[in-house]
């Protein structure tokens, strides 16, 4: 008879007496390997762990479909609020409904994909307090990959799917002259925005190495940041706009690329190069999040459990 399927990803072998009493390692396995080899192994480890959770979820397909539909409907209510707002005005900060729908869709899609792929990283604080992070550290797979794939749920697809529907409508309704660079900026914006939010998820999670379970700080930059990006930069103070350009680079998720795509003036008067700089901002965010994660691992002292 086949062994029953387990939903615990990347299960480790029971520890020996010597392993149980030793302090767990705080360095990632294979740290001496080349960068591309480490990256490939990290992605593969994430996929193996996530696939286990997907297999578990697909055992109850009717429940999965109902939850996905419920997620689609729930997230659609945010856009309904914007539509109702435009029943009382033609413009918001000088922007039309299709233009704001474009902002809404790109920000929501980026947040949704980041939440789907690495959103479980915010559970780091619980792992630290329970001592179960030590278990991840002694497995032959990157701890960050395991953490991000923890309880991976396809139900989170509801947010990005709903965003794609709004994006399709906005692109059809926009009065824009589509040049080659504007066409290319749309997929670049979606990918880089997802990477930026993903880096914020990971970077915010690492704060919990020092402050314990403090994921609400992270949520203020992820969910709060996405809500900010639903609206045009022209309705906010220039100091706030500058803060999300040169501080936490949320403006590179959609504000700055959208200025070029929608042919809008920059409220800060920045060089045009900033409107194409989302890949640079995404790379810097990933580097910063990676450095923060490694610093957190070095500072972590396990429970020995």
Molecular structure report:
- By secondary structure, this protein is mainly α.
- The chain has one domain.
- It contains 14 helices and no strands.
- α2 (35-58) runs parallel beside α7, α3 packs across α8 and α4 packs across α9.
- The longest helix is centred in the middle third of the chain and has 27 residues, at 180-206.
- The protein is globular.
- The two termini are 33 Å apart.
- It comes from Kitasatospora aureofaciens (Streptomyces aureofaciens).
- Residues 1-25 are annotated as: Disordered.
- It holds the Pfam family ABC2_membrane_6.
- This is Transporter.
The coarse overall form would be: globular
Query: Could you say how many structural domains there are in total?
Result: 1
Major beta sheet, specifics?
Answer: none
Radius of gyration: 21 Å
Order of secondary-structure elements = HHHHHHHHHHHHHH
Helix fraction bin: 55-70%
Counted beta strands: 0
Count of helical stretches: 14
Structural class based on helices, strands and sheet pairing: mainly alpha
- Report low-confidence residues grouped into runs of 5 or more: 1-9, 11-27
Overall mean confidence score, pLDDT: 85
- How far apart the termini lie comes to 33 Å
**Percentage of residues in strands:** under 5%
Topology:
Blueprint: H1 17-21, H2 35-58, H3 61-85, H4 97-118, H5 124-130, H6 133-137, H7 143-149, H8 158-173, H9 180-206, H10 208-211, H11 215-229, H12 238-246, H13 255-261, H14 278-299
Helix pairs in contact: 2-7, 3-8, 4-8, 4-9, 4-11, 9-11, 9-14
Transmembrane segments: 64-86, 101-119, 186-211, 240-256, 276-297
Keywords: Membrane, Transmembrane, Transmembrane helix
Pfam families: ABC2_membrane_6
């Amino acid at each position: 008879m086949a062994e029953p399927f387990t939903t615990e990803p990347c299960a480790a072998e029971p520890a020996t007496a010597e392993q149980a009493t030793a302090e767990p390692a705080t360095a990632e396995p294979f740290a001496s390997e080349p960068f591309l080899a480490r990256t490939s192994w990290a992605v593969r480890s994430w996929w193996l762990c996530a696939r286990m959770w997907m297999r578990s979820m697909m055992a109850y397909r009717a429940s999965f479909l109902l939850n996905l539909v419920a997620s689609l409907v729930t997230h659609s209510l945010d856009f309904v609020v914007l539509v109702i707002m435009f029943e009382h005005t033609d413009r918001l900060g000088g922007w039309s409904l299709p233009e704001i729908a474009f902002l809404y869709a790109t920000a929501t899609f980026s947040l949704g994909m980041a939440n789907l792929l690495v959103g479980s990283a915010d559970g780091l604080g619980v792992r630290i307090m329970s001592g179960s992070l030590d278990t991840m550290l002694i497995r032959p797979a990157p701890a960050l990959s395991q953490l991000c794939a923890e309880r991976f749920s396809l139900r989170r697809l509801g947010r990005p799917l709903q965003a794609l529907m709004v994006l399709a409508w906005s692109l059809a309704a926009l009065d824009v002259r589509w040049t080659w660079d504007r066409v290319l900026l749309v997929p670049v914006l979606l990918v880089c925005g997802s990477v930026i939010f993903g880096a914020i998820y990971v970077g915010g999670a690492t704060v919990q190495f020092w402050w314990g379970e403090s994921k609400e700080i992270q949520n203020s930059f992820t969910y709060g940041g996405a809500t900010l990006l639903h609206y045009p930069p022209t309705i906010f103070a220039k100091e706030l706009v500058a803060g999300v350009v040169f501080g936490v680079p949320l403006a590179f998720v959609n504000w700055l690329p959208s200025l070029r795509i929608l042919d809008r003036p920059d409220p800060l008067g920045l060089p045009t190069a900033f409107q194409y700089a989302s890949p640079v901002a995404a790379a810097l965010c990933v580097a910063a999040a990676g450095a923060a994660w490694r610093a957190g691992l070095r500072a972590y002292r396990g429970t020995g459990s």
